[in-house]
Design goal:
Helix content is 70%, strand content 2%. It contains 8 helices and 2 strands, in the order E-H-E-H-H-H-H-H-H-H. The longest helix is centred in the first third of the chain and has 60 residues. Strands 1-2 form a two-stranded antiparallel sheet. The protein has a domain of 189 residues. It is an all-alpha fold. This is M-like protein Szp3. Keywords: Membrane, Transmembrane, Transmembrane helix.
């Protein structure tokens, strides 16, 4: 039941120039229980009050909330999708790299076969035809190592995890490097054999020119004395060039000594023709 209260606010209203009624004002308050406490409101009533708010009457605010919620959902979905695509790209990249390593290994296998075939001339060089026979032994060892080339299997798996394909990739890459080492060893050993062969030939050509020079000097001082002066001058020039070539400690190619020898012989032949007239 409502109780009556006289509030001082009425006097304030009067002081502000308003006309107020001096009678008692009536206010309704919830009735109390038998113990004097105010009863709790029914939850269903609270729910009804909450539902009956300005939010229900404001379509713009409701649309903003809905759009915000949708944006949050889209952002979360995009983040999850990006993580999935990133994981997928990483897995695909590992598989592609693994496949590429297999292809490179196969290419290097073919390259090694061609290298072995290309050094066949060096394998046919005799031991007495080189300055250092040890080079032939090194070549045979390098060629023997090429017989142990493993035949790999393509263990790259598009369905496997990136870590698995990376492990296979690293293994194949190491084997490819080993192939490269074998290839270089064969080439280096072959070059060493051919260089030793050239050194032996150069030494022999140098010694032959030296022996020839001694003989021609004797010829020049005897039979050459009767030749035409211009012809003797040509032989003298050839002798001087040969002597200069032999005084240096540097070993030239066999061709250099052979050319000097040919020049000496040509000068000697002209002297003989001049003497025999």
């Amino acid at each position: 039941m409502a109780e009556e209260y006289n509030w001082p606010i009425d006097e304030l209203r009067a002081g502000n120039g308003g006309s107020v009624s001096r009678g008692p004002s009536v206010f309704s308050f919830p009735s109390t229980t038998s113990t004097g406490d105010t009863p709790l409101l029914d939850p269903s009533a609270l729910a009804a009050r909450a539902g009956n708010s300005a939010f229900d009457d404001n379509p713009g605010r409701k649309a903003t909330v809905v759009l915000t919620s949708v944006a949050v959902v889209i952002a979360l979905a995009a983040g999850g999708g990006f993580a999935f695509l990133q994981h997928r790209d990483s897995t695909q990249s590992a598989f592609d790299s693994c496949q590429q390593s297999v292809s490179i290994y196969q290419q290097n296998t073919e390259r090694l076969k061609k290298t072995v075939k290309s050094v066949e001339p060096a394998t046919q060089v005799a031991a007495d035809a080189v300055a250092d026979p040890a080079t032939l032994d090194a070549l045979q060892k390098a060629l023997s190592d090429t017989q142990n080339v493993p035949q790999i299997t393509n263990d790259c798996n598009p369905s496997a995890a990136a870590s698995q394909n990376k492990a296979v990739d690293e293994k194949i890459t190491k084997q490819t490097r080993d192939l490269g080492t074998k290839n270089e060893n064969v080439l280096d050993a072959s070059d060493a054999v051919m260089a030793s062969k050239s050194a032996k030939e150069a030494g022999e050509a140098r010694q032959a020119l030296k022996d020839q020079l001694t003989d021609v000097q004797t010829f020049f001082s005897t039979a050459g004395a009767k030749a035409d002066p211009s012809v003797r001058a040509q032989l003298s020039d050839a002798l001087n060039q040969a002597q200069q070539l032999l005084t240096t400690d540097q070993i030239m190619s066999p061709t250099v000594y052979q050319n000097a020898s040919s020049a000496l012989q040509a000068a000697v032949d002209k002297v003989n023709q001049s003497v025999l007239g």
